[in-house]
Amino acid sequence: xxxxxxxxxxxxxxxxxxxxxxxxxxxxxxxxxxxxxxxxxxxxxxxxxxxxxxxxxxxxxxxxxxxxxxxxxxxxxxxxxxxxxxxxxxxxxxxxxxxxxxxxxxxxxxxxxxxxxxxxxxxxxxxxxxxxxxxxxxxxxxxxxxxxxxxxxxxxxxxxxxxxxxxxxxxxxxxxxxxxxxxxxxxxxxxxxxxxxxxxxxxxxxxxxxxxxxxxxxxxxxxxxxxxxxxxxxxxxxxxxxxxxxxxxxxxxxxx
Length: 256
Known about the structure:
By secondary structure, the chain is an alpha/beta fold. It is built from nine helices and 14 strands. Strands 1-2-3-4-5-6 form a six-stranded mixed beta sheet, with helices on one face.
């Protein structure tokens, strides 16, 4: 099993940059490329050289530094096949269900359309890490810019099926706002109340709320619990289809 080191840092206003390094091969992967400067600073701080960019989706705040980093390092850019025409500098495409390696790091691609039609999340079984970009956030999920609620619900079920011990890395620091909506729709959830207090403490201290344990998200994130009869009942939607419950939660979150 390779020695994997994962480092997260802030880019732009509220994006997260993430570097994944294999000490055995020397390979370093940037999960998306939101902004060149912070990525270069993180590489210099760690003493690593960038070898790959693993792109989740085509939005500008996730691919802005692709071409600059490719010119500087000659990196290979890998991304979703359905968005290849919208991802700058892409060299190689993957689709959901693909299992592949970058620099000796095993990666599984998971289709997670909804936020965009072709978004892919990436799971590292050896690193016990999930990079869900804008599909899944802590206590939330991405806006439905291109897909619909039923599509996104199916995407989140795929992510929910991963092991509880998986650490979730997301594209943005949105947890505090997500928490306000989550507690409004699920006020009696003891674990959620504990998570909300933790988020408040972290943000007051200027610390990130991510990564977070996926098992904890399964218990606290209402978007992962749209098929829970108790949650549906609390929302006045007893017996409703999970996709409809999900859509109602997403509509409420859009007001925050």
